[in-house]
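REQUEST FORM: STRUCTURE PREDICTION
Request ID: SP-0412
Submitted by: Lab K.M.
Chain count: 1
Length (residues): 83
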Amino acid sequence: MSPQQDSIELEPAELQTLAAAFDEAWVALAHEVSADPESLVHARTKLALIMLELAKLGESGKDELYRRGIRIFRGMSDAARAS
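STATUS: Completed
RESULT:
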C-alpha cells in the first residue's frame, strides 16, 4: 500500500465526529476489556484503528461509526478468543 492510501485527511468537523464516535464506543466497550493497563492500551488502539479504517472507507456519520466500530471490535475479539 502506498503512503497515500494509508493516509486520511479530515476536516475539523469530521475529526470531531470521529472522536465522538470513538469516545462513545469506548464507553460501551471498556467493561468488556481486562483492567490490565496493557490490555486497555491494546484495546483502545484496536478500536482507534477500526474507526480510522471506517473513516478511510467513507463512513462519516457518528452513529454509524459507533455501531460499526463496536460490531467489528467485538467480532475481532470473539475471533481472537476462539483461536
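NOTES: Residues 62-82 form the longest helix (21 residues).
Reviewed by: T.R.
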